[in-house]
Design brief:
The complex is a heterotetramer of chains A (about 160), B (about 230), C (about 425) and D (about 100). In chain A, a hairpin with a 2-residue loop joins strand 1 (about 1-5) and strand 2 (about 5). The radius of gyration of chain A is 25 Å and the shape is elongated. Chain A has a domain at about 5-60 and about 80-130: Helix Hairpins, CATH 1.10.287. Chain A has about 160 residues and is an all-alpha fold. Chain A has helices spanning about 10-30, 35-55, 80-110, 115-130, 155-160; strands at about 1-5, 5. Chain B has one domain (about 1-225). Helices cover about 70% and strands about 0% of the residues of chain B. Chain B is built from eight helices and no strands. Chain B starts with a helix and ends in a 6-residue tail after the last helix. The relative contact order of chain B is 0.16. Chain C has a two-stranded antiparallel sheet with strand order 1-2. The relative contact order of chain C is 0.08. Chain D is mainly α and about 100 residues long. Chain D has a domain at about 10-75. Chain D has helices at about 1-20, 25-45, 50-75. The chains are: A mainly alpha (about 160), B mainly alpha (about 230), C mainly alpha (about 425), D mainly alpha (about 100). The interface of B and D includes residues 124, 125 and 218 of B.
């Protein structure tokens, strides 16, 4: 079977699946506006990486890596990547649960889960704790706004009192 | 602008990976290590399920690290969300059917989970898969009656001592003259339930640890209070 | 000799048991952690004396090297293991309210760091690296307002570890092994090709998250500004160096190809420039130290990209120097904190601390008799020896960055000792 | 085998895109669950029964449970479309778009 001059083979499909998941997940992590979507995107990318790892140990004419008495000489698919994927899946769910727990705390602290809103509140928060009056976005590219020397920066009354 | 750049990045990453992907010799894995493990595993470890032999034997310390990750995640979630049981208004208890079903299901799930764990060295399945089922068994009572929280002391004991048991089995090997996590005890006959030396014991510890940690995580998340204001 | 595995296993055992012990006896629970870290320190010391500087390997589980997981113990690994135990002990949360969970996470961080220093297996490194991630995110989140930085850090490092996992899959597809020593034998025939380079770039980006490598270091300023200073000190001092050590191992053993060095050089140089410029712009102490940390790590990577022993020595010298200096600066800064403009005359309150701060800052810049100078000198001389425009460009970049660094650190020091309040 | 794999891969990719594009968070979590289930079937085809069991139990079961609990506690649990009035948990001003 060919499509657009490209032969459709099993490996093409499987690698498309694995890399497709990784890329969709990566795009989601970068592009999603909502924190919860970012957590989902991370899970998707992880699934793709796991699939890729399993593919790396596949053999055409082989059986699953479990000995069943008599036919112990039959070739098997590589058990090592499978063991690695087992580990990676469980690690993934641990990280995911931690992320969900942190998201709850973020919601509690900031009242929102919108990524850009969180970032803005965070900047204001850090500047506020440090006692700096915010003079615009910290995300501005380097050199865009002229920076006064540190001792001329306007300070809030609280920090100049010492 | 940023979105466009990241889309380009993601697309480029995908294209590059795809190009590399097509160069792979799919279906003919080199299996340098895999082949060696496959032929040595029955003798060295004695497990019919080679994946189990790798997970608990050849790469045992990975599994220990993984248990530690679950423990760290559960501990961190507990630390972040804290104890708020007194102030939290729990969800109302669910209906009679779910409560009764939960009580019936729990022992059943416990048995199935333990079965899967203890046959991990023979058939597909083992500590992780069985552990998840154990977690479900531990968590179902919480789901059925949110007002009665998970029994923390018992959970904490299982959590602590199953993890410790894994390490202590490993240390027993170290102090009987071998290396950490070296297989101990008689290998038995390949394919028997009592075979593969300490492997079933290790998997039991893994299963209990995974079950306890995951149930703890779920309970923390379920009990968390996110202010509605 | 094989008791070196205990420096990974004992802290884990203690971490599992701390909640139970603390429930039985609070004082025993509080003492367990420091005690175990002390034992680890002692074990590392005895192994170092026993081995007399000779490298050896232990096969976990007693399986022959390419089959099982190997811990590779050389002088460098022992040094980092020793420093891990020492730094964790020094930065132990002795004061404040006793929280067993915090102790457990610190112990896990110590165990994982020890594992990163010793492990000689690609996937095992990944597992310990994830363990470091989870434990450090948990510790960062103990800060009062640090849940948002913590989750942004967790997501970035989660993404990084997916990339690293893809890189590991590529390596495994090419070679069929994970043992670093075995990989270094197979590398010339299997990994010196575009796929090898792609695998290196992916693993570099993945591990680079912790090592504050240029494009994946956006978490650094916000985490260091909000996390407890003790945790910032651990992350900036210890964890980033261990990640750099892993990158060094991979670069030397597995991916020793020219393009890989160039990638390192470029990313390192970008880290130096962006880090030092951002530090110069920073208006508060913690973020200034954070950005300066990015710059210093960038210098480490620039050094690693110099082929041969010179680069390794220079990079390690800068890394070790930074490992001592940055935690000290973070701890001293905890005393003053806050906006740089509010620091005027702060030295009057505590002169020894201010003097110590000045000394460390001078060493960081590289003022001649101090250790920082010799580390930087090694780097500059190594770069000058290389031919090729990129290395000379890097040399110019490092020198300019040093001037910028001197500018902002001197500015702080002069503010600290300033008599009058600012205009 | 190639046909089954194609179908499964297509389901997986569609579910992944859907998980990111669905406005409704519950539907997005369900899509991730479907992705995990499809992946576990693919693991069976690839002769990795252990991995398939784990993916089904952890990915489709546990992880979906964790996410669902998260949705519930984050006030995003909302099965009907967003203009539904039946929102005892859903906070009124909540930002729900993807």
């Amino acid at each position: 079977m060919t499509l657009f001059g490209l032969e459709i083979t099993l490996d093409l499909i499987l690698y498309t699946g694995a890399f497709g998941l990784i890329v969709i997940g990566a795009a989601g992590i970068v592009l999603a506006h909502h924190l919860f979507r970012v957590i989902l995107a991370l899970a998707i990318a992880e699934a793709g990486a796991n699939l890729l790892l399993v593919l790396s140990g596949y053999r055409w004419d082989a059986i699953a890596p479990i000995l069943s008495g008599s036919e112990s000489a039959a070739p098997m698919v590589d058990p090592v990547p499978q063991a690695m994927v087992l580990t990676a899946i469980v690690i993934g769910v641990g990280v995911q649960a931690l992320a969900v727990g942190l998201a709850m705390q973020v919601k509690k602290t900031y009242g929102t889960l919108d990524m850009s809103a969180i970032r803005q509140r965070l900047e204001a928060d850090i500047a506020g704790t440090a006692g700096i009056a915010t003079t615009g976005s910290q995300d501005a590219p380097l050199g865009e706004r002229p920076l006064p020397p540190a001792d001329a920066v306007p300070v809030t009354p609280g920090s100049s009192a010492r | 602008m940023r979105n466009l750049a990241s889309l380009l990045f993601a697309g480029g990453l995908g294209f590059l990976l795809m190009v590399f992907g097509l160069q792979f010799d799919f279906g003919n894995a080199p299996m340098l290590v895999g082949q060696a493990i496959q032929s040595a595993a029955p003798e060295q470890v004695g497990a019919a399920n080679i994946v189990t032999a790798v997970v608990l034997g050849y790469r045992g310390i990975d599994t220990l690290g993984e248990l530690a990750i679950l423990f760290a995640a559960s501990t961190a979630v507990g630390l972040i969300l804290g104890h708020r049981h007194t102030s939290t208004k729990p969800d109302p208890d669910s209906g009679l059917i779910l409560r009764a079903g939960g009580e019936l299901l729990m022992p059943l799930l416990l048995v199935v989970g333990l079965y899967i764990i203890l046959h991990g060295h023979l058939t597909p399945g083992g500590g992780f898969q069985g552990g998840v089922i154990l977690a479900a068994a531990f968590f179902i009572p919480v789901l059925a009656r949110p007002s009665t929280p998970l029994k923390h002391t018992g959970m904490m004991l299982i959590e602590g001592f199953s993890g410790a048991a894994f390490i202590l089995i490993g240390l027993a090997a170290l102090y009987s003259g071998g290396e950490f996590l070296q297989p101990l005890l008689d290998k038995g006959t390949l394919g028997n339930l009592v075979s593969a030396g300490t492997l079933p014991l290790l998997y039991l510890a893994v299963g209990l640890k995974v079950g306890a940690e995951l149930a703890g995580l779920l309970a923390h998340l379920a009990a968390a209070e996110v202010s509605e204001s | 000799m094989n008791q070196i595995v205990l420096i990974v296993v004992l802290p884990l055992l203690a971490a599992f048991l701390v909640p139970i012990v603390a429930r039985m006896s609070a004082s025993l629970g509080a003492a367990l952690g420091p005690l175990v870290m002390g034992v680890c320190l002692w074990i590392t010391g005895t192994v170092a004396i026993e081995s007399a500087g000779n490298a050896f390997a232990i096969n976990i589980g007693g399986f022959m090297p390419p089959l099982g997981i190997t811990f590779f113990v050389d002088r460098l690994a022992l040094l980092f293991a020793f420093l891990t135990a020492l730094l964790v002990l020094v930065l132990w949360p002795f004061q404040g309210e006793h929280r067993p969970r915090e102790h457990a996470l610190t112990l896990i961080l110590a165990a994982a760091s020890g594992g990163l220093a010793l492990s000689g297996d690609l996937f095992n490194i990944y597992v310990f690296y994830e363990l470091v991630s989870v434990a450090s995110v948990g510790l960062v989140a103990t800060g009062r307002r640090s849940s948002a930085p913590a989750i942004r850090y967790l997501i970035l490092s989660g993404f990084g570890s997916v990339l690293a996992l893809v890189g590991i899959a590529l390596v495994y597809t090419q070679t069929g092994t994970l043992n670093l020593a075995h990989l270094s034998q197979l590398a010339p025939t299997h990994l010196i090709n575009p796929i090898g380079l792609a695998a290196f770039a992916l693993i570099l980006l993945g591990v680079g998250v912790k090592a504050e490598l240029f494009p994946v270091n956006t978490w650094v300023p916000e985490v260091y500004a909000t996390a407890p200073n003790r945790v910032s000190a651990l992350l900036a001092g210890l964890v980033s160096k261990l990640a750099a050590l892993v990158i060094l191992r991979l670069l030397v053993l597995v991916f020793a190809q020219e393009q890989a060095l160039l990638v390192m050089l470029l990313l390192g140089l970008l880290g130096v420039i962006t880090g030092e410029l951002a530090a110069w712009r920073a208006q508060d102490m913690n973020r200034m130290l954070a950005y300066s940390s990015i710059g210093q790590l960038g210098m480490v990577f620039v050094a690693f990209s110099i082929p041969g022993e010179t680069g390794v020595f220079a990079g390690l010298a800068i890394a070790l120097h930074h490992l001592v200096v940055k935690p000290a600066l973070f701890l001293l800064a905890a005393r003053w904190g806050g906006a740089l403009s509010g620091l005027a005359g702060a030295a009057g309150g505590n002169l020894p601390a201010a003097l110590l701060f000045t000394l460390f800052a001078l060493s960081l810049v590289g003022v001649p008799p101090l250790p920082g100078f010799w580390a930087k000198l090694l780097l500059v001389m190594g770069l000058a020896e290389q031919v090729g425009p990129l290395y000379h460009f890097a040399l110019a970049g490092i020198l300019i960055a040093t001037v910028v660094e001197a500018n902002y650190l001197f500015r702080i020091v002069s503010t600290l000792f300033h008599r009058d309040s600012p205009a | 085998m190639i046909l089954i794999s194609t179908v499964i891969v297509a389901i997986m990719l569609l579910a992944a895109v859907a998980a990111l594009l669905f406005k409704n968070h519950v539907a997005a979590v369900a899509a991730v669950g479907i992705l995990s289930l499809a992946l576990s079937v693919l693991f069976v085809i690839l002769k990795a029964p252990d991995v398939a069991m784990t993916e089904a139990a952890v990915g489709a079961g546990l992880s979906a449970l964790v996410l669902a609990l998260g949705l519930r506690r984050l006030g995003l649990w909302q099965i009907e479309s967003s203009n539904s009035t039946q929102s005892s948990i859903q906070k009124s001003g909540e930002h729900t778009d993807a």
